[in-house]
Amino acid sequence: MTEPVARIYRRFAEREAGGRSPIYRDISRRVAADPEVLAFVAALPRPKWQPNLFYGAVQYLCGPIRGWPSFRVSFAERAGEIREVMLARTTQTNEPARCATLLPALAGLPQPLALLEVGASAGLCLQPDRYGYDYGRVRIPGELMLPCKANDATPLPTRVPEVAWRAGLDLNPLDVRDPDDCAWLEALIWPGEEERIPRLRAALEIARRDPPPVHQGDLRADFLALAAQAPRDATLVVFHTAVLAYVRDPADRAAFADAVAESGAVWLSNEAPGATPPPGIGPEHDAVLSRDGAVLTRDRDPIAYTDPHGTWLDWL
Predict the structure, then answer these.
(1) CA nearest 50: which of 20, 9, 108?
(2) Can you tell me the distance from the alpha carbon of 110 to that of 202, in angstroms, rounded to the nearest whole number?
(3) pLDDT by residue (tens digit) across 60-94?
(4) What is the pTM of this model?
(5) SS (H, E, C) the chain
(6) Is 262 buried (19+), middle (13-18) or exposed (0-12) by CB count in 10 A?
C-alpha cells in the first residue's frame, strides 16, 4: 500500500518545498506518481519515509540533485546503497543560523549560561557565543556572520551570551571531525539553498577547534542525568529546534516537559506550531498557531515566530 507514502510526498511538495526548493517540489510530485519509487519507500520502516532522508541519501551518494531525470537515474542505479544509507542515517539538519533566532532569548537571561541542546546533531547550535550576528540595525562582529531580519519588537542584544558550560544530547551524535558525518550534514542542504553550504563549513571549522560535547542518548531517558552535570552557578537553558516532531507519542512529550521542569532549566523550544506540550500555547495565540514555520517558546509561552533556518525573527 503506497498511497500513505504518496500523500507524504505530495504534502512535502506543497507545504515544505513549495517556496524554498523548486527542484525538491518537482521531484516530490513525481515521486508521488512513480509506483516503483513509492514501493521502494513503502518497504522501509515508517520513520524512514521522510523526503528529507531520501533526498539526503541520494545527495550523499551521488552529489547535488539537479532535477528529476538525474535523480531517477541515480535511484535506478543505486537503490540498494540508498536504502542502506537511509537505514543507517537520520535527518539531522544542523543549521548554525538558528542561533540568530535564539540569541535575543539567550541574551535576556541571567549570565553565565549552561546550554543543553536536545537533538544536537553535531552541536553547531551549541556555540552561539562563537558566531557574529547581523540584524540590520544591530551588528555583533564575529568570525562567522549570521544575517537575520528581526522585527522592531525584537529585544536585540549587543553582545553574545557568556557560556560557562555546553552539552548536547542526540540519538546519533555526529562528529565534526568525521568527514563522512560532515558530508552527511552537507547532503541535507536543499537544492536552491546552496548559500548555506559555506556557512555550514565555516561553523564546522569553528567547532573542530573545541568540539561541543554531544552525548548519545534519548531525551526520554537520559536528559535529567545530563542536566545534572551543569554547573550550579550558571543559568541552565534547555533548547531544541525541530525535534519534538520525532517524539510522536504525546505522553513522551509530556514526560519530557515534566523532566525539564524537574531540572529547573529555562526551556526554549523552537518547533512547529503546536509541537510543544501545553499549557502556554492557548486560544489567544491562534493567529500564531495558524502560520507555517516555527514558534519559539520560553517555558511553553510563545515569544517569537521564527524561520526554521534562522533567516528572520518576529518577536511577539
Answers:
(1) 9
(2) 29
(3) 999 999 999 999 999 999 999 999 999 999 998 89
(4) 0.90
(5) CCHHHHHHHHHHHHHHCCCCCHHHHHHHHHHCCCHHHHHHHHCCCHHHCCHHHHHHHHHHHHCCCCCHHHHHHHHHHHHHHHHHHHHHCCCCCCCCCHHHHHHHHHHCCCCCEEEEEECCCCCHHHCHHHCEEECCCCEECCCCEEECEECCCCCCCCCCCCEEEEEEEECCCCCCCCHHHHHHHHHCCCCCCCCHHHHHHHHHHHHHHCCCCEEECCCCCCHHHHHCCCCCCCEEEEEEECCHHHCCCHHHHHHHHHHHHHHCCEEEEEECCCCCCCCCCCHHHHHHHCCCCEEEEECCEEEEEECCCCCEEEEC
(6) exposed
Phi and psi dihedrals of 64, rounded to 5?
-55, 135
CATH 3.40.50 in the chain is located at: 98-315
- pLDDT for 254-299, tens place per residue? 899 999 999 999 999 999 887 776 555 444 444 444 456 789 999 9
| Third-level CATH fold of 98-315 | Rossmann fold (3.40.50)
Cβ burial of 52 (10 Å; 0-12, 13-18, 19+) is: middle
C-alpha cell at 194: 546552496
Categorize the per-residue pLDDT at 50 as very low, low, confident or very high, splitting at 50, 70 and 90. very high
The C-alpha atoms of residue 246 and residue 169 are separated, in whole angstroms, by 14
For residue 101, give the nearest of 245, 290, 267, 241 by alpha carbon. 241
Distance separating alpha carbons of residues 267 and 61, to the nearest angstrom: 37
Q: What angle do CA 296, 299, 304 make, to 5 degrees?
A: 20
